[in-house]
Amino acid sequence: MAFYVTTPIYYVNAAPHLGHAYSTIAADVMARHMRQRGEDVFFLTGTDEHGEPVALAAEREGLTPQELVDRNAPRFVDLMPRLNVSNDFFIRTTDPEHKAKVQEVLSRIRENGHVYEGVYEGWYCPRCADFKTDAEAGDDNLCPIHKLPLTREKEDNYFFRLSAFQDDLLKLLDEQPDFVMPRHRYNEARAFIESGLQDVSLSRSTFTWGVPVPWDEGHVFYVWFDALLNYYTALSYARPGEDLTDRFWPAQFHLIGKDILKFHTVFWPAMLLAAELPLPEHVFVHGFLLIGKDKMGKSAGNAIDPFKIMDEYGTDALRFYLMREVSFGHDGAVSEEGFRARYESELANDFGNLASRTIAMVHRYRDGVVPGAELDADLAAEIDGLVGEVSEQLDRADLTAAGEAIWLRVRRLNRYVEERAPWTLAKDPERAAELDSVLASLIEGLRVVSVVLHPWLPESTGKLLDALDSPQIELECARMQAGRLGAISTLAALFPKP
User: Fold this and answer.
1) Helices (DSSP H) in 275-335: which residue ranges?
2) Which band of pLDDT confidence, cut at 50, 70 and 90, is reported for residue 347?
3) Residue 199 has pLDDT above 90, yes or no
4) Is there a domain that residue 314 lies in?
């Protein structure tokens, strides 16, 4: 089965921060898990390089927009291997192939009768690159996201007949209630549609940094129509000489932040309907990372540098923290203090210590060879249920529940050590068979948990599985089986305390 997952594409008018890492790691966990299941996976991320925010940022720095994006985009490209993400392609919306495909699809929408020429007058936020309705502007005429004054704009534009798709979008939500996830975001999207859709600007005529409108050279496409199409256009050129569209479209999951919900749950499906293209299966909307009570971001000046954390603690530690600290789909506070606390309690103490002492006991009591003894049936039943739970939860993009299911098993294995006390069994030669069963059960449980945990901690679990001489990470291997392991190696601390 094909599985296609995307992140938002990121603005290049500033350096990457923890919020960019958050969305990308979440998509990577899903992509890695699906590969473990044997699915045909494509994972896309990239940068959004057109529009007024980029043009304004370039002007402030005395650069051309192209110079700015060519300077900043590599920072995002370089972030991907640092995060140890397994994206199959990195799209830049200044790619000529992307621009050509945008022109093709939007020309098709025009040919289908969904575009007309008119004059836009209303409220606009340059930071969002978004035209705001009077309801969104409120009485104070402030951007509801950036809390900055909106500007009053008037310009000749081409319009997209968004209003014509109101009934179609409501029907979509009725027939596919998991199109927008989680449920509270579905309710938000539905309320926006039910409030009445207005036609929206398809083009801009007051600046030139964008994809040119092929039927009118005085216009460029409004950046959101250009940006949203990246999910579709990338497949046509991501692999040289091969068009992957039929193989992977439509996407199973678009992962986005809640600040761009309107575009992905209203504009995007309407565009696809207008172009007569299949719709994605799910749009999963996650919340904001907060510093205290405020959204973290470059404009707020409170962003945490992911590179600093990775330099000090390692990439796996950052990946784990972001997927554990905040309930996926909701806002949640993050901090360097919280990171250190979770690192010590869960990574170093729970998982790292479990791995170290389990392997050490096999070396101490059985000369580094895992006994081929019968496994503890009760423990095996608890551990073997993990694959099904995690698969079911990740099918709903519930990364928080999936991570908790894994951690329940990590804690169970730690309790098993204390309950069975191998150090006590080792003192009694008549209990050697019992000790063999305990050690074999522990090490096999550790192996299974490590396989399922691999998408979250690919580097650390890779080291651990190599030490067990069992590097296979396919989920079909994630069942406890007596006699699977033989001689094992020693292992340095996976998460040393600073």
Assistant:
1) 306-313, 315-325
2) very high
3) yes
4) no
The pair of three-digit structure tokens given for residue 384, joined into one six-digit string:
């073997």
Q: Is 295 a catalytic residue?
A: yes
In a domain, 352, yes or no: yes
Is 20 known to be catalytic?
yes
Q: How far is CA 170 from CA 224, 254, 256, 342, in A?
A: 22, 19, 21, 42
- Are 42 and 86 in contact by the 8 Å Cβ rule? The answer is no
Backbone angles phi, psi at 239, to 5 degrees: -115, 115
Query: What is the per-residue pLDDT across 309-346, written as a single tens digit (0 to 9) for each?
Result: 899 999 999 999 999 999 999 999 998 899 999 999 99
Tally of helices (H runs) and strands (E runs) in the chain: 22, 15
CATH code, domain carrying 412: 1.10.730.10
User: Is 128 annotated in the active site?
Assistant: yes
Give pLDDT tens digits for 126-155.
777 777 777 777 667 788 776 778 877 778
Q: Distance between CA atoms of 411 and 232, rounded to whole angstroms?
A: 42
Q: Which structural domain, as residue segments, surrounds residue 417?
A: 339-477
Tokens standing for 432?
């050697």
Q: Kindly state whether residue 290 falls inside one of the protein's structural domains.
A: no
Q: Give the strand order in the sheet containing 294-295.
A: 294-295, 289-291, 332-333
Active site (annotated) includes residue 143: yes
| Cβ neighbour number for residue 139 with a 10 Å cutoff | 6
Confirm whether pTM is higher than 0.70. Answer: yes
At 242, is the secondary structure helix, strand, or coil? strand
Active-site residue (options: 98, 143, 258, 262): 143
> Could you tell me if residue 124 is inside a domain?
no
Measure the CA–CA gap between 160 and 267, rounded to whole angstroms: 9
Q: What is the pLDDT of residue 43?
A: 98
Q: For the chain, how many structural domains are there in total?
A: 1
Token pair 């678009």 is found at: 254
Asked about 146 being catalytic, the answer comes back as: yes
Q: What is the DSSP string of 175-187?
A: H-TTSEESHHHHH
In the residue annotation, 17 being an active-site residue is answered as yes
